[in-house]
Design brief:
Layout: H1 3-24, H2 31-44, H3 54-69, H4 76-88, H5 97-113, E1 138-149, E2 158-159, E3 182-192, E4 195-200, E5 203-208, E6 215-217, E7 221-225, E8 230-235, H6 240-253
Antiparallel strand pairs: 1-3, 1-8, 2-6, 3-4, 4-5, 6-7, 7-8
Helix pairs in contact: 1-2, 1-3, 3-4, 5-6
Length: 255
């Protein structure tokens, strides 16, 4: 095979990639789309897209994901269509692991906004050692790094207010005031239908949802205001959706 054949092959591959990108540009892949892609492949005499490099196939998949995420929601239909695209592109779960986690969080956020709250399975490690009240339900848990902060220096965040809806995106512009804060370890946050529970090792503390609860929202964590000073709880997930999930969940629970 000569150099001309190589360049010709590259052009065929690129033409097929563009056809696939066009087909999934709305986050959907119909049977008609698949048929037209195959017909185009045969006309070009190109290799199957499944044999393309992982980075190329992953890039096409991520473009489809971006189209779905554009409106800030992921519905059951969206998730189903993206699973079809993943299968068509022959991408393993581990090859798009971060994207799948981000999608799962956005799907959870969509469900919460629709009034369908998640629940934590009873065997979850975060629940061990916590004494629940009768009728208390654990809805969500996550790992956090904890800090003691004397002053916010005006970076107060957004208060989770009793009986008021959360304004979507309000916490995104606020970042935890970590400067000068003292690290005090790591722990687990558990959100139940009655309390916000903080567990560190064998120690458990809780804040009951009430009009006077001092809970403040940030894009990357929560601030619990004390009589003197503050406890900062920084989410370990690093996902931009986590802050929105917590904010929407608290709004649903604090009423």
């Amino acid at each position: 095979m000569g150099i001309k054949d190589w360049f010709g092959g590259d052009k065929k591959k690129e033409a097929l990639r563009e056809k696939v990108k066009e087909a999934v540009s709305d986050g959907r892949l119909s049977s008609q789309d698949i048929k037209e892609i195959e017909e185009h492949r045969q006309e070009l005499g190109a290799e199957d897209i499944r044999g393309d490099r992982t980075i190329i196939r992953r890039g096409i998949y991520n473009e489809a994901v971006a189209a779905v995420k554009k409106d800030g929601e992921v519905t059951a239909t969206d998730a189903h269509e993206l699973a079809k695209i993943q299968k068509f592109l022959a991408l393993r779960d581990d090859q798009i692991e971060k994207t799948r986690w981000d999608l799962a969080r956005l799907r959870r956020l969509t469900e919460i906004r629709g009034g369908n709250l998640p629940t934590v399975t009873p065997g979850n490690a975060a629940l061990r050692g916590i004494q629940f009240e009768e009728g208390e339900i654990a809805h969500y848990s996550l790992q956090v790094d904890m800090f003691d902060q004397g002053s916010t220096r005006g970076a107060d965040g957004v208060q989770a207010e009793w009986g008021k809806p959360y304004e979507s995106g309000a916490a995104r512009v606020h970042v935890l005031p970590e400067a000068g804060a003292k690290p005090i370890g790591e722990g687990a946050l558990v959100f139940t239908n009655r309390r916000l529970i903080v567990k560190t090792g064998s120690r458990v503390a809780a804040i009951k949802y009430a009009p006077d609860a001092q809970i403040y929202l940030y894009s990357d964590g929560l601030r619990l205001q004390r009589t003197i000073g503050n406890t900062l709880l920084k989410y370990r997930s690093g996902s931009e959706e986590t802050g929105e999930i917590v904010a929407e969940l608290l709004a649903a629970l604090m009423r």
